[in-house]
Predict the structure.
Amino acid sequence: MRLSTKSGFCFLALFLSQALPVHAADLKPEDLIAHHLESLGTAAVRGANKSRVIQGIARFKMLVGGGGQLEGKAAVVSEERKLNIMMKFPNDYKGEQFISDGDKSYIAVTTAEHRRTTFGEFVMSQPVILQEGLLGGALSTAWALSNLDRNHPHLSSGGLKKVDGRQLLDLHYQPKKSNEMDIHLYFDPETYHHVETVYSITLATGLGTSVPSSSDQVGLTTASGLPGGDPTRSSKQQEIRYTLEERFSDFNTTDGITLPSHYNIHFTQELQDGKTTVYEWDITAKEVVENMSLDPRNFQVK
């Protein structure tokens, strides 16, 4: 009898562990979002937090199309729907800076030739990424899912999907002002933490003549070892596919708010002729401060 009872408990525990993701997969978008927001902190704590400053270490690598890496500093500064994401490197490639005042956005010129990088041009070409608080995910108070009453996107559930080797909950996010880009938000089915966002779009041409070469962007080496190696310069008329992947991990709780301490960005540019470039930025948070008084100039759109 004891063995039978013990076996019954084991079976029940196994059943519950397997049933949880299945139940989560059936959630409506509004219920999934409610669970996700609760995973960040209680409604009272979230409502009391109007600003946030995250500071840490930034690393940059060219994964495909070149070589080398850089290390510098990073910060994610936010106040309600306003956002400033910065990565700074001691190099000809100075990093990235993305600013939104909640309505308009600004992307800094950060190369030695006083141009935006391909990544900067991409974000500029798709303003909803910044203006709706998608970039940076839940790291900022501007987070899209915390401001649905302002953004009014179309949301649909994709159920459980295998992403990067694990089962995640898929939420399709369609901005009200744009239907060109495909945006999917992914969540852990047990904790409801937001762990990944994938944006993808195919454009008939490149991002414009202001895009610098790969060597200009990073001050390192391109695959060919020659300046002017950016394929968009000589392939303006072919279709180019851009994919932006944001990954979030290592969640920690500070002042009642649970946030990822590790933020990883992959930006991929693929041409029809097979040429591919992949860049990676990696941010590790070292300090999180809630409700800090912030200078309005942090969110000044130039």
In short: The two ends are 75 Å apart (CA to CA).
